[in-house]
Write a structure and sequence with these properties.
alpha/beta, Aspartate Aminotransferase, domain 1, 2 domains, seven-stranded mixed β-sheet, single chain
Length: about 375
């Protein structure tokens, strides 16, 4: 699904040198590379504050802690996503409220979102799924109307832009009150272990979060807030600092692969290709999608057969996600009604994700698409 070894070989000399510098300095925690990467990412995102942390799940949890959400507060998020988004809500004894997604973008459905708001609702967590920015203009309008916090789960969409109706562009993760991301190795900007970060333009919120990530300390051994131990180590920061200048080219390579896929499947009546519509238009080339995953919908009921057929031909593929969150044992709730999750329940039976990374070449893409078109007719 992701060729990290080939990507590494292209930047091996610089990465190896950076890691060696960390080893030579022995500044493994909060060393110079962490501070430099933080500053570089702030500049790239055009955001006032980046607070690095240990992983993307921690980033979500710390964001909610920083906002002062209390047990019982309701947090609305999408049903069709990875469990990390909802598990931190449960860990903090908040109340998750899952809603359906849009059939073309897979992102949170705006009508369902607004319908789910109650007097107990305190926050919305839009997930920029598979690399495409959710409808942030509508989400921010709803948040303003109901006085809600917005936490962007940007684990899959770092580098994507959102275009508002007035033409203004803004980086994904910098639009809401807080943005969070993951630097898991397979992400568009990935390190060689675990890593994450939190973004905000709010000075007071940034100050609170900086304490939370470091045991609640602003001065050593003086604990002003309840915190956690969640820090990005210097070796991972060195890798990320090396890769950040390449992020836009990585995203462009993924878009090129997506265009190849789209063109190859354009005339197949049983395949629905992903759509980019977060910017208010349907297109295949806009910068609101960075294609962390390239996900098809198979219309003829042969998704599972295709999954095995590709494996039999040595082609990696994955089903993201086979079970919706509202049906997971950990998150079953009598409040949920199946008729409220029609799109999600359909997607879990039809989606399949294909190899998507920066090293895909035309020979590989041709083999993948030909194999699929020969099987799905």
């Amino acid at each position: 699904m992701v060729d990290l070894q080939s990507q590494y070989q292209k930047i091996k000399e610089t990465v190896d040198q950076s890691i060696q510098e960390v080893l030579n300095s022995s500044a493994y925690i909060n060393g110079p590379y962490v501070k430099e990467f933080q500053a570089d990412l702030e500049a790239y995102l055009n955001v006032k504050h980046v607070i690095p942390c240990a992983n993307g799940t921690d980033a979500l949890q710390i964001a909610m802690m920083g906002l002062g959400l209390q047990p019982g507060d309701e947090v609305i998020t999408a049903d069709f996503t990875f469990a990390a988004t909802v598990e931190v809500i449960g860990l903090l004894q908040l109340t998750p409220v899952l809603v359906d997604v849009e059939p073309d973008t897979f992102n949170i459905d705006i009508v369902a979102l607004k319908k789910a708001i109650t007097p107990k609702t305190k926050a919305i967590v839009p997930v920029h799924l598979f690399g495409q920015v959710a409808n942030m203009e509508a989400i921010m309008e709803i948040a303003k109307e109901y006085n809600l916090f917005v936490i962007e789960d940007n684990a899959q969409a770092i580098g994507a832009n959102y275009t508002f109706s007035n033409g203004l562009k803004q980086k994904a993760g910098t639009i809401g009150d807080i943005g969070t991301t993951s630097f898991f190795p397979s992400k568009n900007l990935g390190c060689y272990g675990d890593g994450g970060a939190i973004f905000t333009n709010n000075d007071d919120l940034a100050h609170t979060i900086r304490g939370i990530v470091n045991h609640g300390m602003y001065k050593r051994y003086y604990h002003d807030v309840v915190g956690v131990n969640s820090r990005l180590d210097s070796i991972q920061a060195a890798v990320l600092k090396t890769k950040l200048p390449l992020l836009d080219s990585y995203c462009n390579s993924r878009r090129e692969a997506a265009r190849y896929y789209n063109n190859a499947f354009a005339n197949n009546p049983n395949i629905i290709t992903p759509k980019s519509s977060s910017c208010g238009q349907i297109c295949n080339q806009c910068d609101c999608h960075v294609f962390h995953q390239y996900t098809l919908q198979i219309k003829n009921g042969k998704r599972d057969e295709l999954h095995q057929h590709l494996l039999d031909h040595g082609i990696a593929n994955a089903i993201y996600y086979p079970v919706p969150l509202h049906k997971q044992k950990a998150y079953v709730d009598e409040r949920y009604k199946e008729e409220d999750f029609k799109v999600t329940n359909h997607l879990v039976n039809t989606v399949i994700s294909l190899p998507m990374h920066t090293e895909l070449d035309e020979e590989q893409l041709n083999f993948i698409t030909t194999t699929i078109n020969d099987f799905i007719k």
